[in-house]
Design brief:
alpha/beta; globular; about 280 residues; 2 domains; Rossmann fold
Length: about 280
């Protein structure tokens, strides 16, 4: 299991969306162990408070911030409140996402729209709002020069292996995750003169509540398998023969948010044990 690098993010402020459970919670813990002050931006207020309390044990300041990322006004207020409390924002991990797998013919406008609203709209406008704040933190002489001498911010968006190829039982989710890669490239290009790095990660199979639901649809409903059987078959098909842990994903995200990745931007990194190789 990857081990956090002590003090890697010391003094830095990170907003991590969807960090009340699953992968996001793992990233929040990882960043806190590396010295970051963490904003637990999470839809579920109780989960946000639980994680923030947990992070305080690592000796960092953690702020529980209940937020629906598809509510642009609330996101704007969050950014203002974070700056008021911490004075700046150094990192954004755009992890919040929604998946409701179902067969292609069963999709309706009503089931399609919430996934687009969170995974594309929410991600984009959170990125936009935080990026504006990151640019505002840059000295005027640097902005006028049109070339920043070092990185002034790190943004990591969450795509998926589902953003690499289509999914017949998860078409809406797959479409959004393809879109995340495009948003990442567009933002990386636009923000390059400010030396704000924008990248994406594409996780594979990570046992979380989201994957439990996928197991039900893909295995039990589609193939008549017992709970967990589809998941196990999927794990056996991974070249590295194991599922990812939240720490596996967190380590990749932490690297992309570090000074070691100052010359990396506009990339989508597969973190999937070899499911996708491109």
């Amino acid at each position: 299991m990857p081990t956090p690098s002590a003090n890697r993010h010391q003094g830095k402020v990170a907003i991590i969306t969807g960090s009340g459970q699953g992968i996001g919670r793992g990233i929040a813990r990882y960043f806190a162990q590396e010295g970051a002050q963490v904003v637990v931006a999470e839809f579920n207020k109780t989960n946000a408070e639980e994680v923030a309390h947990e992070l305080s044990a690592f000796g960092v300041e953690a702020l529980a911030y209940p937020v629906d990322v598809s509510d642009t006004e609330r996101v704007g207020q969050m950014v203002a409140d974070v700056v008021a409390q911490f004075g700046k924002i150094d990192m954004l991990v755009n992890n919040a996402g929604l998946s409701r797998p179902m067969p292609l013919f069963d999709l309706t406008p009503e089931s399609w729209e919430p996934i687009i609203k969170v995974n594309l709209n929410g991600l984009f406008f959170t990125l936009q709002t935080v990026a504006k704040q990151m640019v505002a933190q840059i000295p005027d002489e640097v902005k006028q020069a049109g070339r920043a001498p070092h990185s002034y911010g790190k943004i990591v968006n969450f795509s998926s292996v589902a953003g690499r190829s289509g999914r017949p039982y998860d078409a809406a989710y797959s479409a959004t995750k393809w879109g995340v890669i495009s948003i990442t490239q567009s933002a990386a290009t636009y923000l390059a003169p400010y030396n704000i790095n924008v990248n994406a990660v594409c996780p594979g199979l990570v046992p979380t509540p989201m994957w439990d639901n996928i197991d039900k649809v893909q295995g039990q409903k589609r193939q008549g398998l017992q709970p967990g059987e589809w998941m196990q078959k999927s794990i056996e098909a991974i070249p590295l023969k194991r599922a990812a842990t939240p720490e596996d994903i967190a380590a990749a995200v932490s690297f992309l948010c570090s000074s070691e990745a100052d010359y990396i931007t506009g990339q989508a990194l597969n973190v999937d044990g070899g499911i996708e190789m491109n």
